[in-house]
Amino acid sequence: MLRPLADDRATRTAATPVPTTTAPAAPAAAPHFGFDNSYARELEGAYIAWQPSPVPAPKLVWLNRALAGELGLDAAALASPAGVAVLAGNAVPEGAAPIAQAYAGHQFGGFSPQLGDGRAILLGEVVDRLGRRRDIAFKGSGRTPFSRGGDGKAALGPVLREVIVGEAMHALGIPTTRALAAVATGEPVFRDSVLPGAVLTRVAASHLRVGTFEFFAARGQTELLRRVADYAIARHDPDLAGRDGRHLALLRAVCARQAALVARWMGVGFIHGVMNTDNTTISGETIDYGPCAFLEAHDPATVFSSIDQLGRYAYGNQPRIVQWNLARLAEALLPLIDADPARAAQQANEAIDAFPAQYRAQWLAVLRAKLGLDDAATDDADQALADDWLQLLRTHRVDHTLGWRRLADAAAGREAPLRALFGAEPAAVDPWLVRWRARAAAADPAAWAGRIAAANPIVIARNHRVEEALAAAVEHDDLGPMLRLLAALERPFDERAEDAELAQPASADFSAGYRTFCGT
Questions:
Q1: In angstroms, rounded to a whole number, what is the distance separating the alpha carbons of residues 97 and 70?
Q2: Which of 23, 176, 283, 499 is the Cys-Cys partner for 169 at CB 3.0 to 4.6 Å?
Q3: Other Cβ atoms closer than 10 A to 268
Q4: Largest CA distance in the chain
Q5: Separation of alpha carbons 338 and 334, rounded Å
């Protein structure tokens, strides 16, 4: 069994829960999950078996019925008292194998050799209706041996933020973990103030991270590292299983997934806020919606995270940072790539050095779609056209989302809404519009406008609307604003009169002073 490091043991208090040998039984009529727990079964030594901590007064706040259906789960059973007891961690359902996963991570560039699930528990895995293996995990379910002195709890506000932003990203077609449920615990959580506690149930393609590989590589546990890598291949790249050179191929596959993911982030103006290696997934999903936010006025230097004081994870830095993170994965995989360290380093470096070109290709594909262009012109010409558009947005501090979306109006011959975004200089956009129209000269205006609208959302999880929804839920026990926002976010590309208010940017004063927090 994995042993916590000595210095972490020293930080544990008498209040730290001790794992029980017998899990609490699920109540009668508990939901059936049909667990098949491959991580716990195949990777002993990569986790610690652990039980979620019970809570005093669980109350279902929100349930993702659509996701429950995807997973083959009975939403009514999940919403029942027996189901809520499971979602709160008060009862462990049949077939579950709760574990705290081990991982390390580079956090803001500094290496932490042991992080792990400090306030999370992987309850188990299910195979959904489409045959996809999905993790079901708790966040905020109490202390584990990886808690490093923390309480292992989550507050309701950050839990609901993960619900809102995760569902927004899903509707935008961006790979993401998703929330299945949010349950209030009936107990306080102590941060800068006293906050209501909650448990999030999160669904992911897996919780394998770059930091997972760093953990075992840093300890020289090469055989366990190999087992984890082969497990990752079997789960996410099964066509590579058993092949010579599969670990280098895994690195390349992860690079490709992350290039596509971050290009999609950049397209919608998403700022992750804490792109540590423990938040960089092997699956290519977005994970951990802590200090995340969306651009308003287009500016690559935008940072909203209160903990990112030097701008390491600014909007415009995200492609560079993900390459840096992938280089840490390459370092961890070196012993598996080739027995000769020099050859391993050369091959790994080649994979990492290829990333900028991979990313540029993905980014250009995103930009072409957003501009409503086909791929007939040269890459350089289209990249220059897109770069000049982004520079216009930056120079005139145009709202990122509306700037892109109003191109659909312009394509249909209605340029006034676009020009209005440029304030006192509406004609500033005219020379660029001439070039853009020349590039798409053969396009049917209606079809062209439709393609642009389909690639550029009108409704995103705008920061001020998210904060309004969270304040109403946490401070006034009013879920109305959150449910209204979620309903609009389900159809982000549809411009509807009833959602017009939600599509408007925040005031400049709000955005200038807006800060997001980790929520731990």
A1: 21
A2: 176
A3: 23
A4: 73
A5: 7
* Euclidean distance between CA atoms 503 and 453, whole angstroms: 14
Given a contact cutoff of 8 angstroms between Cβ atoms, the answer to whether 289 and 159 are in contact is no
Q: What is the pTM of this model?
A: 0.93
DSSP secondary structure letters along 109-177: TEEES----SSEEEEEEEE-TTS-EEEEEEESB---TT-TT---BEEHHHHHHHHHHHHHHHHTT--B-
Torsion of CA 79, 56, 9, 155, to 10 degrees: 70
Please count the residues of the chain: 520
CA distances from 469 to 2, 28, 154, 160, 464 (A): 41, 35, 18, 9, 9
SS3 369: helix
CA dist 297 and 149 (Å) reads 39
Indicate the DSSP class of residue 334: H
Give the alpha-carbon dihedral of 300, 276, 490, 88, to 10 degrees. Answer: -150
- Under DSSP, the state recorded for 30 is P
Does residue 168 contact residue 489 with C-beta atoms inside 8 Å? yes
- Whether the CB-CB separation of 133 and 116 falls below 8 Å is answered with no
Alpha-carbon gap, residue 319 to 272, rounded angstroms: 12
Read off the tokens for 467: 């904060």
Q: Give me the DSSP letters along 43-104.
A: -TTSEEE--PPP-SS-EEEEE-HHHHHHTT--HHHHHSHHHHHHHTTSSB-TT---EEE---
pLDDT tens-digit map of 396-455: 999 999 999 999 999 999 999 999 999 999 999 999 999 999 999 877 999 999 999 999
pLDDT in tens, 291-335: 999 999 999 999 999 999 899 999 999 999 999 999 999 999 999
Predicted confidence band at 6 (pLDDT cuts at 50, 70, 90)?
very low
Residue 161 backbone dihedrals phi, psi, to 5 degrees: -60, -40
Question: SS3 of 18, please?
Answer: coil
Give catalytic residues, as residue numbers. Answer: 278
User: What CA–CA distance (Å, rounded) separates 109 from 205?
Assistant: 26
Q: Which of 91, 208, 195, 185 is nearest to 139 (CA)?
A: 185
CA distance 142 to 88: 11
Residues 429/422, Cβ–Cβ less than 8 Å = yes
Question: Which pLDDT does position 23 carry in this prediction?
Answer: 56
* Residues 307 and 291 sit within 8 Å (Cβ to Cβ): yes
Please, which pLDDT band fits residue 28 given cuts at 50, 70 and 90? low
Over the chain, what is the mean pLDDT? 93
